[in-house]
Specification:
Number of strands: 16
Number of helices: 6
Helix content: 10-25%
Shape: globular
Number of domains: 2
Strand content: 35-45%
CATH architecture of the largest domain: 3-Layer(aba) Sandwich
CATH superfamily of the largest domain: Vaccinia Virus protein VP39
Largest sheet: 7 strands, mixed
Oligomer: single chain
Distance between the termini: 50 Å
Length: about 290
């Protein structure tokens, strides 16, 4: 631990198996709940074989996604799992590794997604051909965001859309099919730099005004998005559609909304599967 005054205490651990609502696949999950006197500095890392889960669930719930790497618990585990939890200042913590991208058909062939899943259905509907993996888990496209976009679109009717964490470019595809005429997609490591601008969403200079900005970030970036990104967007949009994370942590989102109430107010809340997605409306009168 980099901070000698910090403490971490294991409260409990448990196994769960759930069916991913987007891909249709069964996923084995190791859950570890910890308590710390420095919760904002907790960084966790699960490693299994050559894969690692995303770093730093600052809510203190750390989940390792071990799909395809665990045998039935009745027969024991297929391999050893190493778990490390550190308290490290944010400025010195390691950067997140970038996702890797696969074609949709390859993901089907590898059984990372089932043919009758919502992800495949949305992909066919909106012409999406790429999925993204982070470690062993499939993380995109986010079907919950697509469902939310379909719901809020008649209310927002955006002419221009900025997708700040563009990833596969799926949400830009959806925006185009739903009727947006001007679309800009940004990602730090896009699969197709020719169609998605390579840039860090937190430092990307936003000089234009957009009717709608899509914000679908890693959960570890929650605090940075609320603290650093949203204030920059206050005078650059009418609406933000924000994937705020797991609905289980709604109290954390509520606290963030209080901090943002001088620049944005919640216009709609949607719980899609296990995700809480919030439509934020600018406090400025842009109607």
């Amino acid at each position: 631990m980099a901070d000698p005054k910090a403490t971490i205490r294991l409260q409990r651990s448990w196994w769960t198996v759930y069916q991913n609502a987007a891909t249709g696949c069964l996923i084995d999950v190791l859950n570890i709940r910890i308590a710390s006197n420095a919760p904002n500095l907790v960084r966790g890392n699960f490693t299994h074989l050559h894969h690692s889960a995303p770093i730093g669930f600052n809510t203190l719930y750390l989940q390792g996604y071990l799909d395809h790497f665990l045998e039935s618990l009745e027969h024991g585990l297929s391999d050893r799992i190493d778990v490390r939890v550190d308290v490290t200042p944010e400025s010195s913590s390691s950067q997140y590794s970038h996702p890797r991208y696969l074609g949709l058909q390859e993901a089907l062939d590898l059984h990372l997604v089932t043919p009758d899943s919502p992800l495949v259905s949305y992909s066919r509907k909106y012409g999406i051909n790429t999925v993204s993996l982070y470690g062993p888990g499939l993380i995109g496209p986010t079907t919950e965001m697509i469902a939310a976009m379909e719901t809020i679109w008649p209310q927002v009717t955006p002419y221009s859309v900025l997708d700040l964490f563009g990833g596969t470019g799926a949400l830009s595809n959806v925006s185009h099919r739903l009727g947006a005429k001007k679309i800009l997609s940004v990602d730090a490591a896009p699969p197709q730099p020719s169609t998605i601008q390579t840039a860090d969403a937190f430092s990307f200079p936003i000089t234009e005004f957009f009717d709608l900005i899509l914000v679908d970030h890693f959960i570890e970036q929650f605090s940075q998005v609320v603290r650093d990104l949203f204030p920059r967007l206050a005078n650059r949009t009418r609406y933000i559609l924000w994937n705020a994370g797991y609905a289980l942590y709604e109290s954390i989102v509520n606290n963030a909304l209080v901090d943002l109430e001088h620049i944005f107010s919640p216009s709609a809340r949607l719980v899609v599967n296990d995700c809480l997605i919030v439509l934020l409306k600018s406090a400025n009168d842009y109607e």
